[in-house]
């Protein structure tokens, strides 16, 4: 493996790409990584030069090691399911709409981005009325339909170049711009996309459409963690019971399952106990109805970002800690990475 650091001008970008091209020509099959302050701008030139991945400077030591292992285990013939460093896939689903799935998915993704800023991606699979981009105040150039094409699905760098980047470092695969565009989306392509994303990212968060659609089931099939949501109303709770029964009958890979009651209201006529008795599972998280959550969503800033000390934000962080134990990047880790020699060509 060769790592070329072109960040902060220590080694010019032009020179780094030239070296990458030479390594690729003279040592076919070698894994080349490029470290840069502007990875988005280098995606296509790096791809042409034979670079396996472009990493953003400032990664923690743990993220850097994970990226190296991921690159070493990657390749066109990799078995992602058998790769020990494949990313964690967290899917948010519900039998009915209006329960806050997108709010939940964007908050989970934003909180995970605090722990792994450039190793987290959120995918909007609500192909009819997806609002992930709006919930993050983004105006994407490319959408899900642009990602499901051969050249993007065949190469990690090309795929990353089509994702939308949030200011936090979070990557976003936005939903299609109109329901008509959703007609060409197929479960097998979504499956391939998720395979590629979990090979490139540490955390993949998936927001799904209401119900158990074909695309939602494709996402669940790839999931390591499933967040099932309902509100305190009879149709939602009964629908959740049917979903749980369906999942019990399907031959799915092992996954953790979190039951979330959202927008809980004491005057709703149902209790958390009623939900547990109906579904046959313990409720893991109860989020009360709160205008602060609505305001944060409408402003395009998840509450874990805009009001991290709010009680709802703390509850969401508690849920996220089940997917990503430990704190965000430590200053010690950052110092260790920054202490590496700039411009160094490292052979590992």
Q: What would you say about this model in short?
A:
By secondary structure, the protein is an alpha/beta fold.
CATH class value of the largest domain? Alpha Beta
Kindly estimate the percentage of residues that lie in beta strands according to DSSP. 15-25%
- Which strand order does the major sheet show? 6-7-5-8-4-9-10-11
Helix-strand string: EHEHEHEHEHHHHEEHEHEHEHEHHHHE
Quickly give the structural class.
Answer: alpha/beta
Distance between the termini: 5 Å
Q: Number of helical segments?
A: 16
Low-pLDDT residue spans = 75-84, 327-348
What overall geometry do the principal axes of the alpha carbons give?
A: elongated
CATH superfamily of the largest domain: P-loop containing nucleotide triphosphate hydrolases
How is the main sheet built? 8 strands, mixed
Oligomer: single chain
**Integer-rounded radius of gyration:** 21 Å
How many beta strands in the DSSP annotation?
12
Helix content: 40-55%
Annotated CATH architecture of the largest domain: 3-Layer(aba) Sandwich
Q: How many distinct folded domains? A: 2
Overall mean confidence score, pLDDT: 82
- Look up the CATH topology of the largest domain: Rossmann fold
């Amino acid at each position: 493996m060769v790592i070329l650091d072109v960040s902060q001008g220590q080694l010019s970008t032009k020179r780094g790409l030239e070296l990458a091209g030479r390594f690729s020509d003279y040592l076919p099959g070698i894994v080349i990584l490029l470290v840069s302050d502007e990875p988005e701008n280098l995606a296509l030139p790096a791809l042409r030069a034979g670079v396996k991945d472009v990493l953003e400077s400032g990664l923690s030591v743990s993220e850097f090691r994970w990226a190296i292992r991921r690159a070493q285990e990657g390749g066109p013939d990799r078995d992602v399911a058998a790769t020990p460093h494949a990313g964690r896939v967290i899917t948010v689903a519900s039998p009915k709409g209006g329960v806050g799935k997108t709010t939940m998915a964007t908050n989970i993704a934003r909180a995970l981005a605090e722990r792994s800023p450039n190793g987290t991606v959120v995918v909007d699979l609500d192909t009819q009325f997806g609002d992930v981009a709006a919930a993050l105040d983004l105006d994407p150039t490319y959408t899900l339909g642009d990602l499901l094409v051969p050249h993007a699905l065949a190469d990690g760098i090309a795929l990353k170049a089509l994702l939308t980047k949030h200011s936090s470092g979070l990557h976003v695969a936005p939903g299609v711009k109109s329901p008509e565009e959703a007609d060409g989306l197929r479960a097998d392509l979504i499956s391939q996309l998720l395979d590629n994303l979990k090979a490139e990212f540490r955390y993949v968060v998936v927001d799904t459409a209401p119900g158990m659609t074909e695309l939602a089931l494709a996402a669940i099939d790839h999931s390591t963690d499933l967040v099932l949501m309902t509100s305190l109303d009879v149709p939602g709770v009964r629908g959740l019971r049917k979903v749980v029964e369906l999942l019990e009958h399907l031959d799915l890979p092992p996954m953790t399952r979190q039951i979330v009651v959202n927008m809980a209201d004491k005057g709703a006529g149902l209790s958390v106990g009623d939900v547990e008795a109906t579904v046959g599972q313990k409720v893991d998280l109860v989020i009360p109805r709160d205008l602060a959550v609505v305001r944060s969503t409408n402003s395009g800033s998840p509450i874990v970002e805009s009001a991290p000390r709010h009680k709802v934000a703390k509850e969401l962080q508690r849920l996220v800690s089940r997917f990503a134990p430990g704190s965000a990047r430590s200053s010690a880790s950052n110092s260790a990475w920054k202490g590496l020699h700039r411009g160094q060509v490292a052979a590992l």
